Amino acid sequence: MALRAAKPARPESPETPRRKKKRARTFEVSYFAAGVYITLLLILVLLLWSARRERESHVRVPDLAELEQALPSIAGLTGSPFLPGNRVELLQNGDEFFPALLRDVAAARETIHLETYVWWEGDVCRTIAEALAARARQGVEVRLQLDALGAKNGDKKLFEMMEDAGVQIARYHPFSVADIGLFNNRTHRKVAVFDGRVAYVFGHGIAQEWTGHAQDEKHWRDTGARLQGPIAGQVQAVFAENWLETTAEPLVGEQYFPALGQVGPVRAQMTASSPQGGVSKLELLFKLAIATSQKELLIQNPYFIPDGEVVGLIQKAVKRGVDVRLMLPGAVTDSSVVRHAGHRRYEDLLSHGVKIYEYRPTLNHQKVLIVDGLWAHVGSANFDDRSLDINDEASVGLIDPEVAAQLRQAFSEDLKSCTEVTLVAWRKRSAWHRLVDRLSYLINEQL
Amino acid sequence: MIEIPIWLLVVLGLMIVIMGVMLWTLLRERDFHMRVPDLNSFEEALPSIAGMTRALIVPDNSVDILQNGDEFFPALLESIRTAQETIHFETYVWWSGDICDEVANAFAARAREGVEVRIMIDALGSQKMSKELRQLMIDAGCQVRRYHPIRLLDIGQLNKRTHRKLAIFDGKTGYVFGHGVSRLWLGHGQDKEHWRDTGVRLCGPIVNALQSVFSQHWIEETGEVMVGQKYFPNVEPAGTCRVHLLAGAPLGGVSDLELMVKLAIATAQKELIIQNPYFIADGEMVDLLARAVKRGVEVKIMVPGSITDSPIVSHAGHRHFEGILNCGVRLFLHEKTLIHQKIMIIDGIWSHVGSTNLDDRSFDINEEAGVGIIDEEVAGGLKEAFEDDLKACVELKAKEWEKKYTFGHRVVDLACYLISGQL
After folding, report:
1. How many angstroms away from the CA of A289 is the closest CA of chain B?
2. Is-contact B154 B148, C-beta < 8 A?
3. Is residue B72's pLDDT more than 90?
4. Range A37-69 burial, b when 16+ CB lie within 10 A, else e
5. Which of B1, B235, B243 to mutate to test the interface with A (most CBs of A within 10 A)?
6. Looking at the predicted structure, is the pLDDT value of residue A30 above 90?
7. Chain B closest CA to A145's CA: distance in Å?
8. Domains in chain A, start-ordered, CATH in brackets?
9. Pairing, β B116-122 against β B86-91
10. Are the beta carbons of A278 and B157 separated by less than 8 Å?
């Protein structure tokens, strides 16, 4: 660029020393150079924007026929086939989840794989770290995939202790200048796989907040699933994908991918999404699930910011006669901006007959969706742009009346601690509340 | 002249640098040096291969091999004529020649009779497509879409093309192939103007997976979500072949297809055959081949000789000839026409047919599709064709190459290799 140090405009003219000093710190830039700079800047902005922008977020999902008829289409469109023959146990809150996880850590013979976003603080971190380390010392291959951002406040000593014991720890998208363009893409997946045979898909983080049984604001509500059967291979594949990306180690062998026979009655699908490759599979999955519901649609989600199309699909579902109930966080939330952004859609939903319940006791962090008391999804994906378009997520779909009934039962139980939001009350909310909702919605995409 | 303070100058400069770095980190290919282990048996490794490449192995399919244009185009045209409800077609190359008219007219005729016809062509690969032909199809009711149109808004996506070649009829019959729609793919590989290529026709449950791959780009470009039995039917068993469909996902993660190819080489126990028009091995590939030879695997690779449409790729490929030859791989140069087929055959059991070249563009940038077929008869049929192709080949021996491989040649090859990541 054509730059040159500015000479004092009139060197001969008398000026105060202070003025001179200021002059020496400026540059003169020609209009041409400024033009070149601005052009270059614009080109860069365009390149960056076009390389990252969501190419197509307006999918047109038609109303679907009866679920069984639509299943091959749903599987095909989301790239997640339904595998028969699985056994499923649901794990509610930390009280059921962590003991089960620790039992499987203790029982694993060859490989232990755990991927999570949150690894914060608390006794539970130490308990899990020690359990993993103990198994590694006994010769079990232990792989721990952490998100570099989600685990940045984890206790370094614990990580060191695990690594000394032989646990392999990989961090997803670490903070390096060479990867700055990927910084925004995190892995929000929460999965665990033992010997390639027992798998977990869950919403829990490894932190004190997820222990207990949702008894107060410091103990959150969450749901996970323990899976056996052919679906375990699909969960392993999701773990292996990020492991390969972070460590370049392909997991090949029967200790990772054994031949898996049928062990139970549940048909299961694993839907994992990542920001590469066009339309988000989970976004499409959620939309298809809404569109296929005929009787009842239950959604529990801590971060619910639906786009216009989701709202349209839900409205259509209500018109078809579907009983649509959403359970969202009340005053207890770790992200009030997200909560307020979600409020933007309350009116559109309420006025069309959707029932909205706000959960009072604590943060309801579980991501559960139940269609017609038959098809349920449990996993890590929030109902917002960050989960559906930016992060890596994982969710397991389960087709079984028994599993769906258990999740419905839990939903009914949670309902007792909810306040229903009514249209009349909603319309009376303050002007200040309305303004906060609007502003929150404007910035919601990146939250 | 505008006078600006130094701090502003620094800030403005930093802005450019940061954005440049961000762009580079987004668009650069990530270099992975995978540690692919040697595998003991193919059957044992299959669940791992399926898991690592996220491609379920689907049983009960029938597979017909279609060699060259002479077998491929008549079969394709017949399927177009007999499709009842939906015709889906995706390709990279759509150039010119009578075959283009014939295919376009066949699509148009079915569309006029009410069949849903969806055509996804790559915007770059189809630049030479005639506008009249495209209009003829659109007027008849075909939906013709171009993948990643070349326009300013999409400049950051310009490098990412669809190289997939797929056709699906009524969700029940599928084709995976290497052919482009151009007169160069007509005939039977008889001369330079008639290229050699291979495709397969598939019937059975695997066609659902093919439809799934087609739907990805269709949704991305149109937003139309195809739901229903006419797209994704409950497909009945149609044969005895196990098939898995591999579709490349570029940028970011590791390419499924690269992984597939490398894992397949690592599983070979007896014999490994590769035919590919664009073969640029990386260090790891050479290492895997060397280890295979050491295990006692007979490795035969066939690549184009002097007849190629991309001399730069050929030169880039030469870079590793020495290493490959020295480790005991047998290398054959085809001299009759361009061999455009992308074939792998392992131990007479597993074979691959598809669109994937063995170079970085196919592995890391483009959208590709190929099928792995587990069936001895199919592998046997492909091997027969390979042996037939051998008749038009010259075997390149290590000593001969040493003599040919002069300093000047090395410099050209290195230069080509350095830019080969994008070719």
Report:
1. 12
2. yes
3. yes
4. beeeeeebeebbebbbebbebebebeebeebee
5. B1
6. no
7. 15
8. 67-446 (3.30.870.10)
9. parallel
10. no
Fold observed for domain B32-422: Endonuclease; Chain A (3.30.870)
Q: Report the chain A residue with the minimal C-alpha distance to residue B35.
A: A249
Average confidence (pLDDT) over A232-240: 96
Q: Give the H/E segment covering residue B303.
A: strand B298-304
**Percentage, residues of chain B above pLDDT 90:** 65
Q: How far apart are CA B359 and CA B366, in angstroms?
A: 11
Q: Which residues of A touch B253 (CB under 8 A)?
A: 241-242, 244-245, 274, 276
> How far apart (Å, rounded) are the C-alpha atoms in residues B173 and B170?
7
Across the interface, do A61 and B227 touch by the CB < 8 Å criterion?
Answer: yes
Model ipTM?
0.90
The mean pLDDT of B299-310, rounded to a whole number, is 92
Residue type, position B181, single letter: V
Contact B47 A45 (CB under 8 A): no
Every domain of chain B and the residues it spans: 32-422
Residue of A nearest to B14 (CA): A41
* Total-model pTM: 0.90
Q: What is the pLDDT of residues B141-184, one digit of tens each?
A: 999 999 988 887 777 778 888 999 999 999 999 999 999 999 99
Instruction: Give pLDDT, residue A4.
Output: 46
Please tell me the distance from the alpha carbon of residue B277 to that of residue B301, in angstroms, as a whole number: 11
pLDDT at residue A9, as a whole number = 44
pLDDT exceeds 80 at position A180: no
Per-residue three-class SS string for chain A: CCEEECCCCCCCCCCCHHHHHHHHCEEEECHHHHHHHHHHHHHHHHHHHHHHCCCCCCCECCCCCCHHHHHHHHHHHCCCCCEEEEEEEEEEHHHHHHHHHHHHHHHCCCEEEEEECCECCCHHHHHHHHHHHHHHHCCCEEEEEEECCCCCCCCHHHHHHHHHHCCEEEEECCCCHHHHHHCCCCECCCEEEECCCEEEEECCCECHHHCCCCCCCCCCECEEEEEECCHHHHHHHHHHHHHHHHHCCCCCCCCCCCCCCCCCCEEEEEEEECCCCCCCHHHHHHHHHHHHCCCEEEEECCCECCCHHHHHHHHHHHHCCCEEEEEEECCCCCCHHHHHHHHCCHHHHHCCCCEEEEECCCCECCEEEEECCCEEEEECCCECHHHHHHCEEEEEEEECHHHHHHHHHHHHHHHCCEEEECHHHHHCCCHHHHHHHHHHHHCHHHC
A111-125, A290-304, B41-55, B229-243: least confident range: B41-55
Amino acid in position A229? G
* Interface contact flag, A79 B212, Cβ < 8 Å: yes
Residue B32 is nearest to which of A73, A248, A277, comparing CB atoms? Answer: A248
| Cα(A167)–Cα(A134) distance, integer angstroms | 9
Name which residue leads in pLDDT, B108 or A49: B108
- Residues of chain B with C-beta less than 8 angstroms from the C-beta of A25: 5-6
Pairing of strands A223-228, A83-92: antiparallel
